[in-house]
Amino acid sequence: MQYSASRTASKAVASQVLSDDAPATPATEKPRAHKHSRTHKAEYALARTLERAVSAMPERAADVFGRNIGRAVYRMGIRRDVVEDNLRLAFPERSDEWRAAITRKAYEHLGREATAMMRLSKLDSAAVIERTVTAGFDQMETALGEGRGVLLVTGHYGNWEVAAAAVAARGIPIAAIVRRQGNLLVDERLQELRRKLGVETIYQSQAPSRVPRVLRANGVVGIVGDQDARRAGIFVPFFGRLASTHRGPALFALRLNTPVLSCIARRLPGRDVRYEIAGERVEFSRTGDLDTDVTALTAELARRLERQVRVAPEQYFWFHKRWKSSPPP
Prior knowledge:
By secondary structure, the protein is of the alpha/beta class. The protein is built from twelve helices and nine strands.
């Protein structure tokens, strides 16, 4: 079967951003040039070609192109069953028509944000500031004044990469915990983009040693903490259903006595590519039982993310099997 260029591009975008269930390459593994497979080299070449093409377009044209890519992926049906199942679980009270509309919009949003990511190589700090408005940054500055660092906890909502870039662009050093991509060529390109925007990266396996150092130096650490954590997670409510959730953010906060802000980067309506970067401090108490306190803080973070997702549900990453793990009896 012959594929058009747009269909090939759609498949390439989908393979990169919808592969959340693929195993991550261990952060301790050193990328080696001779280890790159032909498939990875081809994926990287196509990704860089798309990046150059999108970067050469006017911003609005690139945004429209991304939306069309998302529509193409939707028509191809890639992971549509996952999206539909998730929306049925999260919004059982809504009509089939409403969920179908949100499904289509979720794919369009995915395509638009994929092209926005590709265009990050063109942006400097001034351009990031121009495209973002903030709410709650005074709370982060107040928290930093306490001298124990700050944890910014977000989810796969809006554009989490822009959230980190917006913090760095305003002169606040930030390190983001990330997952190494299976394609190490693509992974290194992502790291280049983050470094250019002033965002330090910490791979997941490095987090136990590096996060405390950053926080003790009164730095900011960003964590995207809403993927299924399988058996290692704790089960807290998310849209009324228990979901296995990473306990790392709560553990760091409680053990290091670090202030926590729940943060999102929501795409604003309109033709221009603009985002609201909003954060609110999450107060937590101690009962003397660490497990109880970790569960309570994790549940509160999940609750706040859910509240934001309900504002614009099409901007959430429903492509991930959020309720894949079943709670124990």
